[in-house]
Structures are given as structure tokens and as C-alpha cells.
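Retro notes, structure queue

What went well: the backlog is down to a handful. What didn't: a couple of records were mislabeled last round, so from now on we paste the full input next to the output in the thread. Example, using Phage protein from Motilimonas cestriensis:
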Amino acid sequence: MNTNTNKDELVIGGAKLLREFLSTVEIDWDEGFYRYVEYNANHISSQWSYRKGQILKLSEVDEDIEDKYFDTLEGLFSKLCSDIEDEGNKRPVVIVLQVDVNGNYKVTFENNDNKALEINKLCLGKGNSFFKEGEVGI
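Corresponding output:
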């Protein structure tokens, strides 16, 4: 089995799922962000945000819908981290997935600092923010 294809399929599946989630919750969005974090083997966390224009937004959505999508995304990214580690590479501790309304996606990995690549408003302008200075606002 080609493990690169498997990893690609996991990322593509995650991008499709995030796009579907953002469309399901009926928000007006240009780009969505999903952040997966492994603090240790038993402590995994994830969060999402989106932007419309240059404005970074958070939204309350039905918890059952969010759980349905995020449980699946967490499973995909846990598998992705395991596949990366199984190849002899360092296991990522943070993954950020970006997807736009057209389905274009990008994935960013952090291997050392589980406080890196934050996608929330509180970290804008700080060194651990995923967003570059001036890229988004509140």
C-alpha cells in the first residue's frame, strides 16, 4: 500500500468534511480553519473558526452537529499523525487545515509546540497565532 496516497486521502477527506460542516451550519464564510492538537496520547483537542472577508469569526452551532463532524475529523487526523510517525518521522502535535468555499485546501503541521498555530481571536498578533500580522482582524 502506498502510504503517501493514504495520507493524501486522509487530508482530502478532512478538507471535504470541514467544507461540508461549514456549509451545513449555514454560516456566511470564505475560508474555514480546523485545528487539531495532541497534548498526549489521551488528550486530544480540536477547534474551528472561519473568516468572511478579512474578519475572523467564531460561531455557536448545534453541539450534536459539531460533535458528529469533529469526532470524525479527530479520527482522521489521529490516523494521519500515526501514519507520519510510522514512517519514522516525528509525530505532529498540531495540524491546521484550511479550506475555502471552492474546496481548495492547505494543511500545516507543527511537530514540537502544542501551543503553536492558534486559530482563535485571542492569539491574533501573538507569536503563536496561525495568522500572519494583518491577515485577519476581529
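Agreed that this is the format going forward. Reviewer comment attached to the example: The first strand starts at residue 31 and ends at 40.
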